[in-house]
Amino acid sequence: MKLVIVGYGRVGSRTARVLREEGHDVTVVDNDEKKVDRARDEGFEAVLGDGGTESVLTEAGVEGADAVGGLTGDPNVNFAACMLGKEYDCRTVMRISEDYRQEIYERYADDVDEIIYPERLGAAGAKTALLGGDFNAIGDLTDQLRLTTVSVPDGAPVVGEHVANIDLGADGRVYAHGREREPMTIPLPGTVVEPGDQLALLTERTALERVRSKLLG
């Protein structure tokens, strides 16, 4: 897929790297020259400018893109980028802050395909949403769903496995990973589980113990 990511901060840069590792064509847009230089140094096509401006998105290749992600810290830029993406029949994914009032959230949600909310799992949500997945359950857990974390001990069955290859079947899914005392984020395809790692899981409440057993023994 061809993807345009507006914003190369913490969420945008991690999302871009993961998508590229999975074989997708990613172009980055940012209005910060240092971030654009960093993106180019890391091998990305990158455009300097306001991602909420049509001429900038056109330069980034929005006309042939499958999806546009507005992942900056400015919701106005993100929304403008998404609305322009809509004009080019792109899937649109918008990041907002988790402290937005419900009515603001709903207004944005009516106009874009996916909202990345809450932002603490922004990279994981952005990657899933840009590829067409449904990440809403992370922000709107129901009576049947639980978001939980587990610490991987020595000798657990998943030690030595690639995070991307962990298969929990219909019981759940691993959404984020973190080393000991490091923040959790979406893992790169080559990330291997080590003792002491943390895994974030989305599971059905009734399946939680089965999932723990599969992961930890």
From TrEMBL:
Entry keyword annotation includes ATP-binding: no
Single Gene Ontology MF annotation: potassium ion transmembrane transporter activity
Domain RCK N-terminal: 1-116
InterPro entries xref list: K_uptake_TrkA, NAD(P)-bd_dom_sf, RCK_C, RCK_C_sf, RCK_N, Trk_Ktr_HKT_K-transport
Presence of the UniProt keyword Ribonucleoprotein in the record: no
RCK C-terminal domain sequence ranges: 135-217
One GO CC term on file: plasma membrane
Superkingdom of the source species: Archaea
Keywords per UniProt: Ion transport, NAD, Potassium, Potassium transport, Transport
SUPFAM superfamilies: NAD(P)-binding Rossmann-fold domains, TrkA C-terminal domain-like
Function of the molecule: Part of a potassium transport system.
PANTHER family the UniProt entry points to: POTASSIUM CHANNEL PROTEIN 2-RELATED-RELATED, TRK SYSTEM POTASSIUM UPTAKE PROTEIN TRKA
Entry protein name: TRK potassium uptake system protein
Originating species: Haloferax sulfurifontis ATCC BAA-897
